[in-house]
Amino acid sequence: MNSQPHVVRFNDVSATYWELKAEIEAAIAEVLRRGDFIGGRALGEFEADFARYCGAAHCVGVANGTCALHVALEALGIGPGDEVITSPMTFIATAEAITHTGAKVVFADIDAETWNLDPKAVSAAITPRTRAVIFVHLHGNPSGLLEVAELCQKAHLALIEDCAQAHGAQVEKNGERRHVGTFGALGCFSFFPAKNLGAFGDAGAVVTSDAALAAMVRQLVNHGREDKYRHLRVGYNYRLDTLQAAILRAKLPALDSHVEQRNRLCDFYEARLSTLDVRFQRMTVAGRHGRHLFAICHPARDALQQHLRSCHIETGIHYPI
User: Fold this and answer.
1) CA 7 from centroid of its chain's CA atoms
2) Dist. CA 110–CA 21, nearest whole Å
3) pLDDT value at position 2?
4) With the C-alpha atoms ordered 198, 199, 202, 206, is the resulting torsion angle positive or negative?
5) Overall pTM > 0.70
6) 187: helix, strand or coil
7) Which fold has domain 17-253?
8) Parts of the chain with a pLDDT under 70
9) How far is CA 254 from CA 19, 148, 156, 178, in A?
10) H or E element: which one contains 284?
């Protein structure tokens, strides 16, 4: 008899494999049969499917979300002497990508309710050197996006959306729902295994409706290549491999149902925790939260985490200070 206690995992990354086992294994087998591991058919198919899902004209698969942010900035020509505004409440990759271009990272404060960039703080941070804003959809929350997008338009700044935690998130504008990643010049996604749409390793993508930017990103991620041995610029080996693309394509049709399920679970938690001394992340825009994570604020955070650990419930701190 198994006497081990049941552990509530923080994120069971194998769950979607068991749910979609037949589809995933068939997709992998097809790549193995064809042997087109780099730049293969499944890559192009996934790029087309994901662009269609997001409502963008183009998608370029990349090696991971950090690469996506890096090449998005480079495609816009951002480099030394430039400033890029972003959120301090994010994974290090957001600021890291800016630093890799030689540009200066400028942190603007977050809104205390949404935990996303505060549009007023973004406006105050703009200088003559500002070239772009990277808007982070923290935990999948798109709140503040429309205001920041309008700011960027008025100030003639490029907007890059960091959608690493926001697969499936939507924003309503003029009575129409649109997926995140399509409100700025480029949208950057990570498909790290723990994401709403996760690969079985590292993977990422850049989406855009600007054909020139898409062509530049495609060159940058593949050694600046125009064709096999003709290179127009210094690029990177940031390609998404065909196996990961095939896995992502097999999982993509289930994404919307998974995001809806995440929203139902978070609503359940909020309803039952609302009488306690906790604060929830607010969504202040019409649309759909991506619900990558369910996060709360509590005055005795560490003690609460220890209590949950004693109950065999895994938690994380996003992000520790």
Assistant:
1) 28
2) 40
3) 62
4) negative
5) yes
6) strand
7) Aspartate Aminotransferase; domain 2 (3.40.640)
8) 1-3
9) 10, 30, 37, 18
10) none
